[in-house]
Amino acid sequence: MIKTITSIKNAKNSEKLVMITAYDALFAHLFDEKVDMILVGDSLNNSFNGQKDTLSADLEAMIYHTKAVLRGAKNTFVVTDMPFASYIDEKTALKNASKIYQRTDVHALKIEGGKERAHIVKALSDNSIAVMGHIGLMPQFARSDGGFKVKGKDEASTQKLIDDAKAIEDAGAFCIVIEGVKEEAGRAITEAVKIPTIGIGAGRYTDGQVLVWSDMLGFFEEFKPKFVKRYLYGADLVKKAVEQYANDVKNGRFPDNEFIY
Ligand code: KIV
Question: What is the largest CA-CA distance in the chain?
Fold first, then answer.
């Protein structure tokens, strides 16, 4: 059964939550009902669009891909990333979040940021927009942070993450993604809040896990972060199949009797 905000919150301490990204109808359809949540992540800017980071993903792109994912996954809770600079203040955030909500049937939106963006989470939640938080390593802010850095390596950094998580929980978030933190920090944050945490490179003790589909199915070859488990070697399979097709055509083996009218 399709998850709701209430059932996602209730999953804490009772079942692990599973989330995967999707960017189009084809793959969303394959993932539909196999996972609890599908994230239309702005990682689509790297994985789908070939850009070097997520920063140039814009609202129109997120709306376009969200509509496609929703057409493919009719029975799964779908969350969309608010893109970089679309929530710089409460007014801008409300305007842009409302645009996504009005133009798609997405169930919730995700924004990156802790204590410093709790007022944005509150502005959206107070206006009936469901917000998933995202703390720890935040790809939208990696450039200003000097790169993709693992967080929670010491007590002070872990305490900051806990404060961030509590602030966005208090502001009304229903769930929090924790990215790129030491396992003990992932555990401490998860224990400190009542809403579920979804980890990506955050160890074993979060309330759920999320992976980028093209990483976990082995289609994205440029690099593989340590936390990614490959469940398929998609790129190898596709390349071999296309090579075979090309050979068959060149050598007159395709089409044969089976494939002609
Ligand atoms: O954009 C994305 O895919 C994400 C995940 C890494 C959580 O935010």
Answer: 70
Q: Global pTM?
A: 0.97
How many angstroms separate the alpha carbon of residue 9 from the centre of ligand 1?
20
Q: Which atom of ligand 1 is nearest to the CA of 19?
A: 7
179 is catalytic: yes
Cβ contact 19:38 at 8 Å:
yes
Ligand 1, atom 8, lies closest to the CA of 41
pLDDT tens for 147-204 read 999 999 999 999 999 999 999 999 999 999 999 999 999 999 999 999 999 999 999 9
Q: Of ligand 1's atoms, which has the minimum distance to the CA of residue 39? A: 3
Q: Which one of 3.30.1360.70, 3.20.20.60, 3.40.50.40, 3.40.50.2000 gives the CATH number of domain 5-230?
A: 3.20.20.60
By the 10 Å C-beta count (0-12 exposed, 13-18 middle, 19+ buried), 232 is classed as exposed
